[in-house]
Design a protein that fits this description.
The chain has 91 residues and is mainly beta. Helices cover 12% and strands 44% of the residues. The chain has one domain. It contains 1 helix and 5 strands; from the N terminus they run ββββαβ. The protein has a 5-stranded mixed beta sheet.
Length: 91
Amino acid sequence: MSEYPKSDSGFFHLTPQGWVRGDHRPFPADRVETRSYEMECPAEDAEEQVCLTRIWVNSTVTPQDHDVIHARFGGPLPPTAGRNVVLECRV
C-alpha cells in the first residue's frame, strides 16, 4: 500500500532556544511567536507543499529582540529541493 498522499499539520513555536514543535496546549511559556504548519505531498515524485502561517506574536517582546531571535534561528523548516514553503502572516 502506498504511503501517499501524505499530510501533516500542527504548530511550531519560536523560543529563545530555537524552534520547537508543539501541537497541543500548553504551548511553551517562553515562546516569541507561533506558526501554524500544514504539509501536503500528493505523490512520491511531488514536492512537499508547506504553508507556515504566523498566527501569534508575543507582545511583551520588543521588535528588536524578536528580530534577533528570528535571525539566530531562521524559519522552522528550511526550504529544500523537495519542499515548497509558503509563508503567511495573520498577525
